[in-house]
Amino acid sequence: MKKRPPRQTRSTPKQKAIKQPAKPPGKKVAPAVRQLPMRPRRAAGAGPSRKQSSLAAFNEIVALIETSRCEAGRAINVQLIELYWKIGAVISTRIEHDGWGKGTVAELAAHLARTQAGTRGFSPQNLWRMRQFFDAYRDAPVLSTLLRELPWSAHLHILSGTKRPDEREFYLRLAASNRWPVRELERQIASGAFARVVAGPKLSTALREVHPEAAEQFKDAYSLEFLGLSPDHSEADLHRALLRNLGRFITELGRDFCFVGSEYPVQVGNQDFAIDLVFFHRGLTCLVAFELKVREFRPEDLGKLNFYLEALDRDVKKPHERPSIGVLLCASKDAEVVEYALSRSLSPTLVAEYQTVLPSKALLQRKLHELYAQLAPKADTSAND
Question: Which domains can be identified in the chain, with CATH numbers?
Fold first, then answer.
């Protein structure tokens, strides 16, 4: 058998390298950059982007969740207050008719602990508070709806910090209308808000005529202990502290006060003036100017305040707004001097004082007794009529 000759492979000739033209010295050629396709620009005036639209929808859902959570919390609170009211009614009735005492209530608490395992709020002390809660308001059916608006801890502060039905009703209504948190309610009770409000501030004759409801919107004294001022503070210290704690100051003033400006500028003739603080009162529909004094009230202080009110009414007040009100907020005041000074005042003004520390319990009790003594003759007279 003949052998095949080996297969010859064709050799490919080597390709000669092509010489590139030399680059001119000193010049660098940038490498080619791959260009990405450009996104079309949104036309001016077009609607929100997809991301913005999604974010708006997300926030809407968050708002729905928060609203539902608040409504659920209120519904739970209503049921809890109704339950405590009914338990208090049963305990009060048993005490009156069956001679229940503290021992029986303690047995009830132990029985509830065994049969309602894991349920809190039914200690002997809290059961007694439920009975006190029922007895305090059993003869005031007009307050039944209002009672369900406050949490149980708020009711405990009112029951422990007040003695008279009108005082309890005062804090109930204020806490509900101003939506005070429990801590603020506790502070208002400790500062004697009832005595400060019910006593009423001294109003000028013009203020009583122009704003008959003003006495219910202002206080004779404002508690500013949250400012943390030193005893020798200056007017500038007071002003700065009020601005730093503006939210708490508005809470102390009342929820209808809206802040307008600090050192509010007014121009009369060729002269510039600045009002310490200016607010707007939604209920009274008027501007309220505050002048701060870190000393005792002086009759001449009213002249400057009257001037500011005239400037506000002429140059700042809107046509639909009522005449502006002026408040002199002083460190102290003599009631008789204030009465004399305001009796002939032609401007709607009032004088109030501020307190940098909470009153002691003894002082608060003394003021309350004085107030009760003042209110008692009026109550007897109205009863006889």
Answer: 66-138 (no CATH), 201-378 (3.40.1350.10)
